[in-house]
Amino acid sequence: MSKLLSLFLIIVALTVGTGCHHSRTAQSPYRLAVAKRLYEQRQYHQAQDTLSNFILESGSDRTTLCEAYYLRGLCFRHQGASYDTKAKQDFTKAITRSCHPMIKGLAHVGLGHIHFEQGLASLAKAKYHYLTALNQLDDAAPKDAVLYRVGVTLQRLGYWSQADRYFLRCVHHFPSSKFAGQAKRRVGAKIFRLQIGAFSDLKRAQQNVKSLSGTGFQFDSTLETHDRKTLYYVRTGRYTTYQMALSQLDNLSRRDSGGIIVACK
Asked: What is the pTM of this model?
């Protein structure tokens, strides 16, 4: 987002330099900058309204329109999943406008996130948008997050070896990123398991396994060390597809035992 803010500041500076502060076209860049500040203050609805006015004022040839559509798409995203359709429309408009490739890349990231969150049926679309974004983003955040999310998407689609390549890129190019640590743990994974909890000592993990004996699932406690922290993970099942894991998680949830799906070696 800092790159986007820089673009806004440049636009504002150029407008001030013209000395025509009171014309309709000169006010638009200020409105865009105001919307940016409202967004950073988490006043998403107000930012959305400001951006809508900016878009109405702008001509179809304005290169700043793609920035406005992208930012309004983010505002919709922050207002909940019920606004995802509007967010998708704005991200798509940002992509089709002629502007900085970075904005287009970020809009593809936004579309990728929406499709990823819509579940297994939309993962192929998420993969497309993430891969497109990687070709347009600079070698800085959020590229680390996108590399990680591409890997997760590919694992869920069953492309384990391809997923490893993106996880390793994340680890090698962004070693200090929080996503690098998550990516490293997923490298080499071949199955999905259901994870119920994580405990710092074996006794508590064993007690949890015992309490789950009536669910009809066979649980075990697995010792793993990540970032110098050792934990006992209570898990069940070994599923070769994400669909199988989802189905069994649903069965487990009906037995009043929640959990998450994790990729394991």
From this structure: 0.86
